[in-house]
From TrEMBL, chain B:
<dbReference type="InterPro" id="IPR003593">
    <property type="entry name" value="AAA+_ATPase"/>
</dbReference>
<dbReference type="Pfam" id="PF17912">
    <property type="entry name" value="OB_MalK"/>
</dbReference>
<dbReference type="GO" id="GO:0005524">
    <property type="term" value="F:ATP binding"/>
</dbReference>
<keyword id="KW-0472">Membrane</keyword>
<dbReference type="InterPro" id="IPR040582">
    <property type="entry name" value="OB_MalK-like"/>
</dbReference>
<keyword id="KW-1278">Translocase</keyword>
<dbReference type="InterPro" id="IPR003439">
    <property type="entry name" value="ABC_transporter-like_ATP-bd"/>
</dbReference>
<dbReference type="InterPro" id="IPR047641">
    <property type="entry name" value="ABC_transpr_MalK/UgpC-like"/>
</dbReference>
<protein>
    <submittedName>
        <fullName>ABC transporter ATP-binding protein</fullName>
    </submittedName>
</protein>
From TrEMBL, chain C:
<feature type="transmembrane region" description="Helical">
    <location>
        <begin position="199"/>
        <end position="221"/>
    </location>
</feature>
<keyword id="KW-0812">Transmembrane</keyword>
<keyword id="KW-1003">Cell membrane</keyword>
<feature type="transmembrane region" description="Helical">
    <location>
        <begin position="124"/>
        <end position="146"/>
    </location>
</feature>
<feature type="domain" description="ABC transmembrane type-1">
    <location>
        <begin position="89"/>
        <end position="279"/>
    </location>
</feature>
<dbReference type="InterPro" id="IPR000515">
    <property type="entry name" value="MetI-like"/>
</dbReference>
<feature type="transmembrane region" description="Helical">
    <location>
        <begin position="158"/>
        <end position="178"/>
    </location>
</feature>
<dbReference type="Pfam" id="PF00528">
    <property type="entry name" value="BPD_transp_1"/>
</dbReference>
<keyword id="KW-1133">Transmembrane helix</keyword>
Length: 310, 398, 293
């Protein structure tokens, strides 16, 4: 019997029954996990292996034969001005969105948290962009920012600043898209911060008030900010990852333009892989993309593991 | 001087009154306990004194100066919370030092990084450290100063909370059920420590609890509250020996006072279970009254103990609880009702079994009218006392 | 018994000052919040306003929100006839529904097995799940695309859904939830003669309802709005989900028929936003739970 081989771990129970129970548990467990395992294999693990393999070749979609080029694709990427620019643009985008979306999210959460009757009203408004289809809203932003027809420029003209070509001025295109990124993320971060805020005991604020923390700044510095530390770290990481994956707004609003001024990493991967069909090269770029994401994830795991439980 | 005066203080949440017409004078250096069942408004009252809840009307003054418009930190009060409310991200030292840094450093001297530029801060901080250490020494927590609250036991946290309150030398200490999160043994210990601390500091303490033992053991005076009002204010002894109504009588004392239904007889004497007691009241004959008899006033009697000034009622033993030095005896009496007696351990208790006569001192009976208010019995004339046969009701053979 | 003088601030605070400070605080708070809210609402308001304006009013670029000539009917009917917008929305619903059902069918038993059963390979599988959490869909996209192309499956609902059939996140979230489910109840169910299959679906799953609801919100919002993967595998407009449909529509519309464009945006954004407005609590709770983990 197979059961006898497995039994020793279950010593102490009546042998036969314990064996059968353990065997049943094993079979059921494997059965339950099997579909997930199979999908994991097909959807994630095999593609990852193929991806690594492709990145070392010169394969192009449809090509009949291909050969290994070692790290050639990676070397090419490093010296490719288009890719380097897209990497730099992505970092720039993250460095605008991160402080904006985290800082404003925190500010809004702190202000909203102290409201009682109007809290759900503000919550609803700020959360609206999270649920709305970004592509559709990006199209609307395009209308809003239109140099001649958009209301924003009409307003700027009226107060005497004159037209600003938000999306076609190379120095403004990326910051403009970043502002839209902030617009979309503030509500999401607000909700996370609100969850963190409601976990802070009210007693502490009262104790602080008696101890002399009279104004909002003191209360924030003494209680809110330190106790919100773990939440803040988490929000910073998730915002970084989301911002790093920016794609939709670029694809709809600028297509990387003008003159590559808003070309970002994922858009470059998309163009190489699915428009130009430089499959192997795109595989290498994807791996570089993955490395960045993994760095963020490692930091996240690290932070969450040693998340301070006071 | 830190005399606390509350005048016509009231609080309502919307249309719901929580406190109404609270008048209370607390002397400088007094230990006053607010006691009452949960929801009686005692916590709201102490939080109003701290400035954490605004009052709806009325006024509060400390040392003769109105503090109604002062914010909590300006009121020179310190508060110990039920949860201790220690700042979890700060060391014990920083927890205790916080009130002082808030008082003595300006905002920019407290800001992260910028504070390092301040030379005044470098002068002030050692002073603060000295004071914190002095307090820690008093509370015997010097060795814990570097720890975070999470790594302290309940009793240690309690002391840190006390230290944080003491370090400011407040005019008034406010304590909101500070011992209720401790285990029973530690609670008894901290009770003593708090009482001693009060004696040492000679500061006004206002203490909130629902535990009558805490109230009885520590306080100079106790204010018993119910439904947003003060029912009775007095020394622990006064509350115990002369409760103003049934609520006070049944809240104070453990095991709780025995309450028995009785009637006023045609001659004004009270009749309990058809037995006439030597208690005469000004109440109308036929009125219902409730007699309150403390468990320690009850005694399972052998015949020779029924003497002058005592009465008895027939009872049957249901259960004995052995507390070592004493026994709690549970009896069933006619009514049907249940009566508890607290009796010192000894041969008499051992012998109790089945049906007995429960003897009690008539003078120790509290009389409450139908509204539950205390009624003082008429003083007995000497001739009444000289006629022993009237002591026990006619039907009651002994 | 204190000898220290009262702090100076004690003398300064008067009732009037306190009230002034309170009101000032309220004004600043609401001022900031309303400014932010205006920024957030700007595109929504403009979208609705433009969608009911005739072209000539759109081109004059004024601030007026309400049009002089109501042109909503024309814009919306044009948008609906020029592109199969309702079809896009239906595709979105099929996509989200199909993905969610399979995600739950796969993840729930697996999460239960990881949480409560001992079987060989359990720890390896869990580590793989944790690693999988860090891999966004853009990473396996390239090989998956090649595979689907070779199988001739591009331009199908299946190709749009398949990368999302397995949600490692769902497994992770539900495993955490199932872990705290009392073992005693499972043992009792076993003694009562329930099979493991019944235990999963009739005992454990109902208890995890909050987590399942939260995950469902998260999954639906994510896939209704996803552009990247449909953009890669779908070229047939009749299969496009809302974001891709919107993109097709915007590209096909010659430049600046803004009335129709915003009408289309309104139609495609509406289903999720309206659901959100009605189930605000659940949405926000869902995001909080899935966001904070």
């Amino acid at each position: 019997m197979a059961a006898t081989a497995i039994s020793s771990a279950e010593a102490g129970l009546p042998q036969g029954r314990a064996n059968r129970q353990a065997l049943v548990e094993k079979l059921v467990g494997m059965g339950f996990a099997f579909p997930a395992f199979l999908l994991l294999l097909v959807i994630i693990i095999t593609p990852l292996i193929v991806l690594f393999y492709l990145s070392l070749t010169d394969y192009e979609l449809g090509a009949l034969d291909f050969r290994s080029v070692g790290l050639g694709n990676f070397q090419k990427a490093m010296s490719d001005p288009v890719f380097r620019r897209s990497l730099w643009n992505t970092v720039l985008y993250v460095s605008i969105v991160l402080p904006g979306a985290v800082g404003l999210g925190l500010l809004v959460a702190v202000l909203v948290h102290s409201r009682k009757r109007t809290r759900s009203f503000y919550e609803m408004i700020y959360f609206l962009p999270v649920t709305s289809t970004l592509i559709a809203m990006a199209t609307v932003w395009q209308v809003l920012l239109h140099p001649r027809l958009g209301p924003i420029n009409a307003f700027l003209r009226q107060i005497g600043i004159g037209e600003v070509a938000f999306l076609s001025d190379p120095s403004l295109a990326l910051p403009t898209i970043a502002v839209i990124g902030i617009w979309q993320l503030v509500g999401f971060n607000m909700v996370l911060f609100l969850a963190g805020l409601s976990a802070i005991p009210k007693d502490l604020y009262e104790a602080a008030e008696i101890d002399g923390c009279a104004n909002g700044i003191d209360r924030f510095l003494t209680i809110t900010w330190p106790l919100l530390g773990p939440t803040t770290m988490f929000v910073i990481i998730t915002t970084s990852i989301t911002a790093f994956k920016v794609f939709d707004t670029v694809a709809v609003m600028t297509r990387g333009g003008p003159a590559g001024a808003s070309e970002v990493l994922l858009y470059a991967v998309y163009l190489e892989g699915f428009q130009y069909f430089h499959t192997a090269y795109a595989a290498a770029l994807t791996i570089i993309f993955l490395v960045f994401i993994l760095i963020f994830s490692v930091i996240q795991t690290f932070v969450i593991d040693r998340r301070v439980h006071y | 001087m830190a005399r606390v005066e509350l005048r016509a203080l009231a609080k309502s949440f919307g249309a719901v009154p929580v406190l109404s017409g609270i008048d209370l004078d607390i002397a400088d250096g007094e230990f006053l306990t607010l006691i009452g069942p949960s929801g009686c408004g005692k916590s709201t009252l102490i939080r109003m004194i701290a400035g954490l809840e605004p009052q709806t009307s009325g006024s509060i003054s400390i040392g003769g100066v109105s503090i109604d418009h002062l914010r909590p930190h300006e009121r020179r009060v310190a508060m110990v919370f039920q949860s201790y409310a220690l700042y979890p991200h700060m060391s014990v030292f920083s927890n205790i030092a916080l009130p002082l840094t808030m008082q003595r450093l300006s905002l920019w001297e407290r800001l992260p990084l910028i504070k390092l530029l301040s030379s005044r801060r470098r002068r002030v901080m050692p002073e603060i450290a000295r004071e914190v250490r002095a307090i820690a020494e008093q509370l015997q927590i010097e060795h814990l100063l570097d720890r975070r609250p999470a790594r302290l036991s309940g009793g240690q946290r309690q002391r840190v909370a006390l230290g944080r309150a003491m370090v400011r030398h407040p005019d008034v200490f406010l304590m909101d059920e500070p011992l209720s999160n401790l285990d029973a043994k530690l609670r008894v210990h901290m009770r003593t420590e708090l009482a001693e601390l009060h004696q040492r500091l000679k500061t006004t303490f206002i203490y909130v609890t629902h535990d009558q033992v805490e109230a009885m053991t520590m306080s100079d005076r106790v204010a018993m509250m119910d439904a947003g009002r003060i029912l009775q204010l007095g020394t622990p002894t006064e509350l115990y020996e002369r409760p103003i109504n049934i609520k006070v009588a049944s809240f104070i004392g453990s095991p709780a006072i025995n309450l028995l239904k009785a009637k006023v007889g045609h001659d004004g004497y009270i009749e309990l279970m058809d037995r006439r007691l030597t208690l005469q009241t000004p109440l109308e004959p036929g009125a219902d009254v409730t007699l309150g008899i403390r468990p320690e006033a009850m005694f399972p009697a052998s015949s020779e103990e029924i003497r002058t000034g005592r009465a008895s009622l027939p009872a049957s033993l249901r259960r004995k609880e052995n507390l070592g030095s004493e026994f709690i005896l549970h009896f069933d009496v006619a009514g049907p009702a249940s009566v508890v007696a607290r009796v010192p351990a000894g041969p008499v208790v051992q012998a109790v079994n089945g049906s007995v006569e429960l003897s009690f001192d008539v003078a120790a009976c509290h009389i409450f009218n139908e509204q539950g208010e205390r009624i003082e019995p008429n003083p007995l004339d000497s001739c009444e006392l000289s006629r022993p046969r009237t002591l026990v009701a006619s039907g009651g053979g002994v | 018994m204190s000898t220290q003088p009262l702090p100076p601030s004690a003398v300064q605070t008067s009732p009037g000052l306190a009230r002034t400070r309170h009101i000032l605080g309220l004004v600043v708070t609401h001022g900031l919040l309303l400014t932010g809210a205006a920024f957030i609402l700007l595109p929504f308001v403009w979208m609705l306003a433009t969608s009911i304006k005739p072209p000539d009013e759109v081109f004059t670029a004024t601030f007026s929100l309400w049009p002089k000539r109501f042109y909503g009917v024309e814009n919306y009917s044009y948008a609906l006839t020029a592109a199969p917008l309702l079809r896009f929305a239906l595709n979105g619903a099929i996509l989200c529904g199909g993905i969610l059902i399979i995600q739950l069918l796969v993840a729930i038993p697996c999460a239960y097995a990881l949480a409560k059963l001992r079987f060989p390979g359990r720890d390896v599988l869990f580590v793989l799940v944790l690693l999988g959490l860090a891999v966004p869909v853009q990473v396996p996209a390239l090989p998956l695309y090649i595979g689907l192309a070779n199988l001739g499956l591009l331009n199908t609902y299946f190709s749009m859904m398949v990368p999302f059939f397995l949600s490692v996140f769902a497994i992770f979230l539900l495993r955490q939830f199932f872990k705290s489910f009392p073992d005693d109840i499972i043992h009792a169910a076993r003694l009562d003669g329930m099979s493991e299959f019944e235990i999963v679906w009739r005992v454990v799953t109902p208890s995890a309802w909050p987590a399942i609801a939260a995950f469902s919100v998260f999954s639906i919002v994510a896939h209704w709005n996803d552009l990247y993967w449909p953009l890669i595998v779908i070229t047939d407009a009749s299969l496009a989900p809302p974001p891709l449909g919107m993109m097709f529509f915007a590209n096909a519309e010659t430049g600046s028929n803004y009335g129709a464009l915003t009408a289309a945006a309104t139609i495609l954004t509406a289903p999720l936003v309206i659901t959100f407005l009605f189930a605000r609590r659940q949405f926000i709770q869902g995001i909080t739970m899935t966001g904070v983990k």
